[in-house]
Amino acid sequence: MAGNTYGQLFRITTFGESHGPALGVVIDGCPSNLLIDIDFIQAELNRRKPGQSAITTARKEDESFEILSGVFEGKTTGAPICMMVRNNDQRTQDYAHLKDVYRPSHADYTYQTKYGIRDYRGGGRSSARETVARVLAGAIAKLFLAQQGIQINAYVSQVGPIKLQTNPDQIDVSIIEKSLVRCPDETVSNQMIDLITETGKKGDSVGGAVTCIIKNVPAGLGEPVFDKLHAELGKAMLSINACKGFEIGSGFDAAQSFGSVHNDEFYITDNTIHTRTNNSGGVQGGISNGELVYLRCAFKPVATIRSEQQTISTQGDEVTLAATGRHDPCVVPRAVPIVEAMAALVLADFTLRNNTLNKHNL
């Protein structure tokens, strides 16, 4: 099975299945002597884990992690870092009724078609449980980026039709985690929570959006043509389960704008170049311009719902399916740390690539 590795210099490979013994990641290319903050890594996992609030799935995963290699006396050695989380709250019996059924909008049929076999216990590699490995790797990337002064924060900006109208550059990141839904506006947050709660009671699910802001990105990150910074961010975000859309800066709103309005004009203050607006989202020509980088990811409603749906069995018979088990009515609150992790992996990789380029230019 290909497609399990991401990055060039800061490179990760994830492994494991949703109902296997463990999930984990191997990180190759992390610089040596990076101080590893165990508490920070655990806190990142806790933000992603199920059962953290009344509006998430009732599963109670411990998600304590183990470091198997690449760290000695609290610092990275430069060797591959292997990290792992054991699966402790498996309920394989919850999926027994799906053994011979293709779930609507899941990867059951496509995996069966491609590989001739599928893990019906939660989807195996296609399960969102795989993202625990990304959060582990993203935490290491964040520790590396913190040395460069780069700060990454994501938040829920939409649930169903309820949208946060605050501009990304005006967000108070200190209040994001104070909201159950991770929306940095109390009024909008409460509206989102009410909608998610009511949707869950109906046995349905609802989609939403996560916005990510990246501060203190230096000018010059990104490569021309095929490895543009925003192109890699798009690939990283669209690789997240349930992510169906990506935009950076003004995104799709640019399609209804005019150049006279949309263009980011330059000005200089204290010998530093800035733009009067930031419609480009901090990236021009695929390379960061030193301004705030901000992006937005759209997530579909969770495909597993308790309401009855029509589907087919593996034998081609039409059947009615009402899912059982423990599932989120809305994925976006738990997607926030995953979006941050993927953004961190992209920025860490480009930072190392830029450092290598600068060494060659000396």
What does this structure look like?
The longest helix is centred in the last third of the chain and has 30 residues. The protein has 362 residues and is of the alpha+beta class. The chain has a single domain, classed as Chorismate synthase, AroC fold, CATH 3.60.150.10. Helix 1 packs across helix 7 and helix 5 packs antiparallel against helix 7. A hairpin with a 2-residue loop joins strand 5 and strand 6. The strands form 6 sheets. It has a 5-stranded antiparallel beta sheet, covered by helices on one side. The protein has a 5-stranded antiparallel beta sheet with strand order 9-8-10-16-11. Strands 5-6 form a two-stranded antiparallel ribbon.
